[in-house]
Write a structure and sequence with these properties.
Pnp Oxidase, Chain A, 41% strand, eight-stranded antiparallel beta sheet, alpha+beta, globular, single chain
Length: 147
């Protein structure tokens, strides 16, 4: 499968899935969180929101290297051969003042239920700048795409 096709499949997955699992580097163990997300059209950035007082936010401030896993599994036996999983590796930082509004709008378009949450004063919009996608289908077919 060529890179263009894989990226199209990733876009399709992101358009149909609302949540993924974010992993941050904690002390002494990795820390995972279920997150709603949205991706930029070019798939180079993925945005999500969290409160600044959370463990994941503190972890990202200390070490911005994160991974985010999104999959199509439906908790069925056939998921082993039919599900697709995409892991993004990169650095996550808080959106700056110039992009904050754009990214909030992107999150709200995909996840309107976040309206109240995004208006909280302690809510931080985070931007994951994707360095690498790891795309897995057919159980063990792995394709890596550097961004």
């Amino acid at each position: 499968m060529d890179q263009k096709k894989v990226l199209a499949n990733i876009r399709k997955l992101f358009d149909t899935q609302k949540q993924g699992v974010l992993a941050t580097i904690g002390t002494p163990y990795p820390y995972t969180s279920l997150m709603t997300f949205a991706a930029t059209p070019d798939l180079k950035q993925v945005v999500f929101a969290t409160l600044r007082k959370t463990k994941k936010y503190v972890n990202m401030k200390a070490n911005d290297h994160v991974s985010l896993l999104v999959d199509s599994a439906l908790n069925r036996v056939e998921d082993v051969k039919n599900a697709v999983a995409v892991t993004m590796l990169g650095a996550a930082t808080e959106a700056d003042a110039t992009t904050q509004k754009e990214f909030r709008t992107m999150l709200l378009k995909k996840n309107p239920e976040l309206a109240g949450f995004l208006n909280e004063t302690e809510c931080a919009v985070m931007v994951l700048r994707v360095d690498l996608y790891i795309y897995v289908d057919s159980f063990q077919h792995v394709i890596e795409i550097a961004m």
